[in-house]
Amino acid sequence: MIQPTESQDFKSLLGCFATGVTVATTLDAGGERSGMTASAVAAVSLDPPLLLLCVDRHATFHAAVEAGQGFALNVLASNQERISRIFADSGGDPFAEAEFRNESGGFPLLEGAVAHIVCTLWGSHKAGDHTVFFGTVTGGEVFDRPPLLHYRSQYTTVGSDNRTVI
Fold it and tell me: What CA–CA distance (Å, rounded) separates 98 from 147?
């Protein structure tokens, strides 16, 4: 039995939970683009439509989203592993290596994604070394592409034929 008191053991336990891969994007107080790869994302409420995004308080993105009006989640497609890695690295301008467009509120939306989810900031809550940001979903779009998944520290996907089996 693993005792999740060590952070590496905790990461091993969480690695057994397959997650979708997103890139969260926002504009900081000065209007500069900021983004980070995120898998700690979840639906919170249907009425109102809320989701959560967990961000390390030491991440550059943390200050940007905290100072901004909201954020966008770009749900990555199976062929966007490189984009995930670019936005996971610190340093440099990841937007210089990614194709994107600005939605009407200005948040960068990555081209080729499975979905874009646009949120206004609803609230936040400190939790350990992270902050949980809550966003009210104000818009979005969906595309017919297989998603990028993360499982046991590896990237993977689901069936490439886009069929849903129930």
Answer: 17
